[in-house]
């Protein structure tokens, strides 16, 4: 478990809010803020431990927990495969908060004015007519804050626990992509609602959290949109035909100079390297050669990567991209009928396809603007 470095802000914030121009530092106030921060920290910790322990119980490794001042994050390296596991793991955090709240309940009720205290803590708009003791305040806050944490995290908005649970449940009937679209759209809508609520309640923390939900949701939505776009592009549109290179083949023994010449002639970013039986061996990148190779007479042996992935032309571009990214190679070789090498797809060819919608709109405006400017000069 790690504490995120932004925790350094917590003592600074406590001191800042405990200082008044007239009285200087009000130490009892600083002590109270520190108690509050400690309480909140322990509630978040319990929440994250809930996720982590259930993940371990279900055999899904939770890599580590990083605690941020405003909330934690249990990082799950693999998405759990079974829907039930996913639901249990994401529900465990809010459930741990509810459990903590229920644990504090009998202790508060056992106090002389217990019921009245409970009512005032659970109702956010209620006025506290009593002056509770420190113990009573801690018990009341434990109940109220944990209920808020549980309810907030169960909102059906990505990336909150509730949104992830909803996505897991929708994945069966709708499929992963549509389920993700649903919860990310909900994330933006609910996030916007929370931002307005935060503004009306003049609660900067709520506004901040709401904006975070909106940003993460729209990023995830964009990712889904890009995947959909990739899947729709035919391989024929991006393939670099092997015939372009003709009989100019690169071997590990080829000289740096000859390969540089071929790069200059083709202006390809990456070129294939073959073995002595003319089977594809891997790829060499123009940039690597330009930056690392000094001597034109030495061989490219040290500068190429003997790794590639193979694909079929009828494969979808999304699947090919995932293969390239997964294997961390420069590109894929596309094999036609009878295993004949027909062409290549490189990472560089995929990047322009990932252009986001805002970028496209931006470019449209830019070209229009520069065209207008040009005509204005005339
Ligand atoms: Zn959670």
UniProtKB/TrEMBL annotation:
Organism: Neolewinella lacunae
Biological processes, Gene Ontology terms: proteolysis
GO cellular component: membrane
Transmembrane regions listed in the UniProt entry: 7-26, 32-54, 87-109, 138-158, 179-199, 205-221
Compartments, record wording: Membrane
Membrane topology: Multi-pass membrane protein
Occurrences of domain Peptidase M50 (ranges): 38-109, 136-190
Chief place of localization: membrane
Cofactor entry: Zn(2+)
Record-given protein name: M50 family metallopeptidase
Family statement: Belongs to the peptidase M50B family.
Record key words, sorted: Hydrolase, Membrane, Metal-binding, Metalloprotease, Protease, Transmembrane, Transmembrane helix, Zinc
Molecular function terms from GO: metal ion binding; metallopeptidase activity
């Amino acid at each position: 478990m790690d504490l995120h470095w932004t925790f350094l802000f917590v003592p600074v914030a406590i001191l800042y809010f405990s200082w008044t121009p007239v009285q200087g530092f009000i130490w009892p106030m600083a002590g109270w803020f520190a108690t509050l921060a400690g309480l909140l920290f322990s509630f978040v910790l319990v929440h994250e431990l809930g996720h982590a322990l259930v993940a371990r119980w279900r055999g899904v490794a939770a890599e580590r927990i990083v605690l941020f001042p405003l909330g934690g994050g249990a990082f799950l390296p693999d998405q759990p495969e079974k829907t039930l596991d996913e639901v249990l793991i994401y529900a465990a955090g809010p459930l741990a908060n509810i459990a903590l709240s229920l644990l504090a309940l009998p202790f508060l009720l056992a106090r002389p004015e217990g019921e009245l205290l409970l009512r005032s803590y659970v109702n956010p708009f209620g006025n506290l007519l009593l002056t509770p003791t420190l113990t009573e305040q801690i018990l009341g806050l434990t109940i109220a804050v944990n209920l808020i944490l549980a309810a907030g995290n169960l909102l059906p908005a990505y990336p909150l626990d509730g949104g992830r649970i909803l996505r897991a449940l929708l994945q069966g009937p709708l499929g992963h992509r549509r389920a993700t679209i649903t919860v990310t759209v909900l994330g933006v809508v609910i996030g916007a609602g929370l931002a307005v609520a935060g503004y009306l309640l003049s609660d900067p923390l709520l506004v901040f959290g709401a904006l975070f939900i909106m940003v993460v949701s729209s990023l995830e939505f964009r990712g889904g949109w890009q995947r959909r776009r990739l899947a729709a592009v035919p391989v024929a549109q991006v393939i670099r035909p092997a015939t372009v290179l003709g009989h100019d083949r690169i071997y590990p023994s080829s000289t740096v100079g000859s390969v540089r010449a071929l790069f200059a002639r083709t202006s390809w970013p990456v070129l294939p390297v073959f073995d002595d039986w003319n089977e594809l061996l891997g790829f060499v990148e123009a940039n690597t050669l330009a930056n690392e190779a000094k001597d034109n007479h030495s061989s490219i042996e040290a500068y190429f990567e003997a790794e590639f992935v193979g694909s079929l032309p009828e494969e979808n571009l999304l699947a090919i991209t995932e293969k390239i990214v997964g294997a961390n190679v420069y590109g894929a070789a596309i094999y036609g009928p009878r295993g004949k090498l027909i062409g290549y797809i490189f990472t560089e060819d995929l990047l322009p396809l990932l252009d986001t919608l805002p970028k496209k709109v931006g470019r449209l405006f830019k070209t229009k603007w520069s065209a207008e400017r040009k005509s204005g000069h005339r």
